[in-house]
Amino acid sequence: MTVCPLMLFGTKFDLLILVSQVMEGIKKLMLKNQLLSQALIFFFMLFLTTFLFSLILKLVLPFLIAFLLTKWFYKWFVGEESQSEMVSFFSSTQKNNSFF
Q: Which residues are CB-neighbours of 85 under 8 A, at least 6 positions away?
């Protein structure tokens, strides 16, 4: 189905038809050239995973280490014994030494 591009900019439905036709063309091209398609997808995924790992290593990991060191140095400077017991990684609860 060939449609004049000048007639496609009237409504959003016409734009949807145009996008659908473009996507079908891309799908046919990818089926004909599988190796090229996979190589292009590989480089996009490599960029995405590199970005995510760099984000984790540059932001999340230093924040986590700084948080843990802050708690450790505070206890070291104040000199108090731990009044709480670790229940999970980020929360703590008071020790219960009584029988009842």
A: 92, 93, 94, 95
At residue 85, what are phi and psi to the nearest 5 degrees?
Answer: -120, 135
**Distance, C-alpha 5 to centroid of its chain:** 38
- Considering only CA atoms, which of 96, 99, 68 is closest in space to residue 83? 96
Collect all residues with Cβ–Cβ distance below 8 Å to 86 and sequence separation of at least 6. Answer: 92
User: Residue 10 is encoded by which pair of tokens?
Assistant: 């009237």
pLDDT tens-digit profile of 1-49?
A: 555 555 555 566 777 788 888 899 989 999 999 999 999 999 999 999 9
pTM reported for the whole predicted model:
0.48
